[in-house]
Design a protein that fits this description.
This is Glucosamine-6-phosphate deaminase. Residues 24-245 form the Glucosamine/galactosamine-6-phosphate isomerase domain. It is a single chain. The chain is α/β, with parallel strands linked by helices. The chain has one domain (13-252): Rossmann fold (3-Layer(aba) Sandwich). It has helices spanning 25-46, 61-68, 97-106, 123-134, 175-183, 202-206, 221-229; strands spanning 10-14, 17-22, 50-54, 78-82, 84-86, 113-115, 141-144, 168-172, 196-200, 210-215, 247-252. An eight-stranded mixed sheet has the order 1-2-11-10-7-3-4-6, sandwiched between helices. A three-stranded antiparallel sheet has the order 5-9-8.
Length: 259
C-alpha cells in the first residue's frame, strides 16, 4: 500500500516567508524533512557539494529522524555544520549540542564532512576558526528553530544584531533561553545551564540560500506570533526571517498562533 504524505492544513505568507501548518508534530516533521531532502537532491544535481547548518534542539528531532531516513541523497557530498554550542561543559557532556546532533543525525548518515563547534580551549579563537570554515564557500541550506524568547541560534534579544560584523561570536545567554533548556529537559536545573555559548550570528544565517524553520509546541506560540506579526526588530530576533528570500516556517497546531 502506498502511503499518503501529510498535507498542510494551512499555508500562508508572512512577508517573504512561507508558513505551513500541520495537524501534528509528526506530520510537520515529515513534510519539513521531505522538503529539505528535495532541496538537497536538487542542489546536488547542479553542484559538486552542499553545505548545511543544523540546529540542535528537541524541536528538531522528528524532522531529523525523517531526514536521516530519506532516500536517494548522496550524503558523502554534504558538509555539515551546527549553529551553536555551550561554553563550559565537559567535552563528553551529553548536553553538548555536537553530541546531540551526533545521536540524532551525524552518526546516522555518512556525511562527507562534519565540522563540530569545539569551544575549548579558547572560545574566541574557536569562533574565528569556525567563521573561517563557514566562509570557505556559500552555505546552501540551514535547518533552524525559534526559541521561546524569539531567538534564532543563540541570538537572544539582548545580544541579537541584524548588522553584526561577526559571523560567529561568544554570547551571554538570557534567563528565558536558559530556562527553556530546563523546560526541554536538557538540564535538570537552571543552575546547570551554562551562561555563555558560541553562536552563528543572524547575518551569517541570513546569507544562506534557503532556510527551513521547524517550530512545534505550545511553548513557542507567543514567539511565533511575534515572529509573524510584530515589527521586525531584535526584540524578536526571528522576525527577521520574514525578510529572507527563501524561508519556510513549519508549525504544528500547538505552535500556530492563529489556531
Amino acid at each position: 500500500m502506498t502511503s499518503v504524505a501529510p498535507t498542510a492544513k494551512a499555508i500562508r505568507n508572512a512577508g517573504r516567508m512561507v508558513v505551513r501548518v500541520f495537524d501534528s508534530r509528526e506530520a510537520m516533521g515529515a513534510v519539513a524533512a521531505q522538503d529539505i531532502a528535495a532541496a538537497l537532491r536538487s542542489a546536488l544535481g547542479r553542484q559538486a557539494g552542499v553545505r548545511m547548518v543544523f540546529a540542535a534542539a528537541p524541536s528538531q528531532a522528528q524532522m531529523l529522524s525523517a531526514l536521516s531516513a530519506a532516500p536517494d541523497i548522496d550524503w558523502g557530498r554534504v558538509t555539515a555544520f551546527h549553529m551553536d554550542e555551550y561554553i563550559g561543559l565537559a567535552p563528553a557532556a551529553p548536553e553538548r549540542f555536537a553530541r546531540w546532533l551526533d545521536d540524532n543525525l551525524f552518526d546516522r548518515v555518512p556525511f562527507g564532512q562534519v565540522h563540530r563547534l569545539v569551544p575549548e580551549p579558547d572560545p574566541v579563537a574557536a569562533s574565528a576558526r569556525y567563521a573561517g570554515l563557514l566562509a570557505e564557500a556559500p552555505i546552501d541550506l540551514v535547518c533552524l528553530g525559534i526559541g521561546v524568547n524569539g531567538h534564532i541560534a543563540f541570538n537572544d534579544p539582548p545580544v541579537a544584531d541584524f548588522n553584526d560584523p561577526l559571523d560567529v561570536k561568544v554570547v551571554t545567554l538570557d534567563h528565558h533561553c536558559r530556562q527553556q533548556q530546563v523546560d526541554d529537559r536538557c538540564f535538570a536545573r537552571i543552575e546547570d545551564v551554562p551562561r555563555q555559548a558560541i553562536t552563528l550570528t543572524i547575518p551569517r544565517l541570513m546569507r544562506a540560500d534557503r532556510l527551513f524553520c521547524v517550530v512545534p509546541g505550545a511553548p513557542k506560540r507567543d514567539a511565533v506570533r511575534s515572529t509573524l506579526y510584530d515589527p521586525i526588530s531584535t526584540q524578536c530576533p526571528a522576525s527577521i526571517l520574514r525578510d529572507h528570500a527563501d524561508c519556510t516556517l513549519y508549525l504544528d497546531v500547538e505552535s500556530n498562533p492563529d489556531a
